[in-house]
Write a structure and sequence with these properties.
With about 90 residues, the protein is α/β, with parallel strands linked by helices. It is about 30% helix and about 25% strand. The protein contains three helices and four strands; from the N terminus they run E-E-H-E-H-E-H. A four-stranded mixed β-sheet has the order 1-2-3-4. The longest helix has 11 residues.
Amino acid sequence: MFLIGIEKVNVDDKKNLLFIFPWFKLGGADKFNYDLLSSIDRNKYNITILTTEPCEYVWRQKFEKFGEVFDLTSFFYIEEIGQRLYTI
């Protein structure tokens, strides 16, 4: 998991947080990520989540309640994702 703080002024004056996860599968790491996102005050932060690995995304709907979710494998070839993330 990567967390990147993005400095950008929004109309609502919330800070933006970007989380990069490999996927949303059933398991301990994803439960941890879910609990972490559950603890963030959404009145203070806008949350964006990127996933980098193709899978069935069993828990995607659970994570969508926290913010925007983007599956990078829908936009790029898997081989390109590392380079694309490097340029963020």
